[in-house]
Amino acid sequence: MPAAPMRRPCWLDYAKAALAVVAIALLGAPLLGQFDLANIAMLFPLAVLFAAIRLGRGPAVFAAFLSVALFDFFFVHPHFTLAVSDLQYLLTFAVLLAVALTTAELAARLRRERDSAEARGEEAARARLAVESERLRNTLLASLSHDLRTPLTALAGLAESLPLAGPPLPPAQAELAEAIRAEALRTHALARDLLDLARLQSDAPHLALDWIAADELIGSAVHSRTHPLRAHTLTLDLPDDLPLLHADAVLMQRVLCNLLDNAVAHTPAGGCITISARNTAAGAASDAAPPWLEIQVCDDGCGLPPGREQAIFERFVRGAAPRSAGAADHRHEPARAPTTGDEGTGLGLALVRAIIEAHGGSVAAHNRSTGGACVNLRMPLPPQPEPPPPEACALTAGRNT
Amino acid sequence: MKAPHPPAPVVLLVEDEAGIRRFVRAALEADGCAVHEAASLERGRIELANRRPDLLVLDLGLPDGDGLVLLAELRQWSGMPVLVLSARSNEADKVGALDAGADDYLAKPFGVAELLARVRALLRRSMRPPQAASRIVFGEVVADLDQRTVTRAGQPVHLTPIEYRLLSLLIAGGGRLVTQRQLLAGAWGPNHVEHAHYLRVYMTGLRRKLERDPRLPTHILTEPGVGYRLVLETLSDARTPASAPPAG
Fold first, then answer.
1. First and final CA of chain B: distance in angstroms?
2. Nearest chain B Cα to A208, which residue?
3. In whole angstroms, what is the distance from residue B174 CA to residue B122 CA?
């Protein structure tokens, strides 16, 4: 019989308990006169036991009192009143009540234990199922990622090596080969971003946490975007004493690269992009609010659609006011770098948010009053690790051993 | 063929995906290499022993086993340069390959230009005798390994012993990626390989002393999640407006 879960007994349970007591009373009625009253009284704990096991503690206690009342009313002289002529029956009542209440308590406790054991079992089964499906999901994502990446690598590489295979291609064909390569890389980037999003949105995304320096992170992101950034002026506003983050270095690099790509895509050539970082606790009292590292990437481009600033972090939403004519020209610029497939899957900023949130941080975007947009990252700052042991003294390299 | 060219470098390509084999082969042959192929770990083992190539290009995910197994075997008897191809997005695998003795890695998808740049760098390094240069120059910095001195724009730079050790490890890497673990073990000892934050502190210091703009380093580069590499010649040092090389 499946146990009723640990619910509060309702009036129906009390009615059932009452019914059980009445049934016992009816059962006992014909015995009146032939059996000793004390023995008839022994029947009532049965009703209480039933109530305790099936209905819970409340109905059982109710049944206990009702038993005493009915026993008194119907069985004890004078009948049909609650008055008692022979005081010895008070002892019977007391014993009956004590037995009934103890029964109720013990049975209810057993019931509670059974219920919680079952709940624990169910919980364990659920947890096992969750672990299993998480594992399955990760395996699936990993193999999907591998199985997509490999043929797309071949496709892009084959298209790129087309001119190597024979005499130089006529320009029209070279352009087609390049288009095939670019599309393969774009497909790859899309698949990668989708899979990464799926991975990050699992219950417990795997983060390779390590101590990373924000300025180093920003430096390497900028370095990897040297080429796309060449037409823009980049300004860094980084204090010297930035604390370390405890984060996944590869994912954080993606965050910054995606933000840079986004800024470049929405800022006409010659525009300015600024990266700044600050420790919210710097200069504040030491016991102020928990410290955050804020990283801001700002541009002076076309800005975000007013009122929908946060929508850019949704999947497949792109900057609504795209680069105008100048940008379109830029696309057809003949000497542009080979596509890396990183520009614009429509998932870049959704990934930024997923990555930052997986680290316990938050992202927001706003328009600047002077034109252009800013994306603001907030990352929690953990207590800093023990610094490296000091060296005896700063030697010149020449005196090293 | 008639000209007395040095013999073409021999490259062994161990990769199970035919499409990738094909374009890597085309690219390497166009660049003057002689290419042999193997589609499995077992075949690769045989070809390695028979061909004695100058360079191994190794895919990690092979149908009959992990490429790392072959790499470990190879390192028992040869220091030949190994370029690992990896479809795994997991940085831990790249670190594992580098720590197991790979010289460099390329993550799929990679382009022909990237591939050739890595292969050329590896071949150049292996052709050159290792102890040839005792003077290393990058940017305004000259490091004299014999004298154990470092100067920047002619002025002596004062490095702490650990800073100097880190710089030496990067120089010994010869442009290769040196993993965090290798740097930590080399500079602080094997008990400190987990103390990544030591590296963050010291690399910042080293960059402040050696880089023109320490926030935008062009020589001491970070590969997030993997390690560091010292790049001697950078695009910004020899920037020619006409021939901007493709971004990696």
1. 32
2. B225
3. 10
Spell out a b/e string for B28-58, using b for 16 or more CB atoms within 10 Å of the CB, else e: bbebebebbbbbbbebbbebbeeeebbbbbb
CB within 8 Å: A150 and B113: no
Residue B62, CB-side half-sphere exposure with 13 Å CA sphere: 26
Q: How far is CA B49 from CA A46, A386, A393, B77, in A?
A: 87, 49, 51, 10
The answer to whether the beta carbons of residues A66 and A117 sit under 8 Å apart is no
Q: Cα-flanking dihedrals φ and ψ of residue A94, to 5°? A: -60, -45
Cα angle for residues B33, B38, B44 (degrees, 5° grid): 105
Contact between chains at A253 and B224 (C-beta distance less than 8 A): yes
| Among the partner residues A157, A220, A394, nearest to B112 by beta-carbon distance | A157
Residue A147 to chain B, least CA–CA distance (Å): 9
B174/B12 Cα distance (integer angstroms):
22
Mean pLDDT, range A171-183, rounded to an integer: 89
CA angle B180, B185, B191 (to 5 degrees): 115
Q: Dihedral (C-alpha) A140, A141, A146, A148: value to the nearest 10 degrees? A: 100
Mean pLDDT of all residues in A175-201 = 87
* Angle, alpha carbons A22-A28-A32 (nearest 5°): 135
pTM of the complete model: 0.71
* Main-chain phi, psi angles of A295, to 5 degrees: -120, 130
Three-class DSSP category at A239: coil
What is residue A296's DSSP assignment?
Answer: E
Stretches where chain B sits below pLDDT 50 are 1-2, 235-248
Placement of tokens 């379109």 in the chain: A328
Q: What is the 3-state secondary structure (H, E, C) of A123-149?
A: HHHHHHHHHHHHHHHHHHHHHHHHHHH
H-assigned helices in A275-333: 325-331
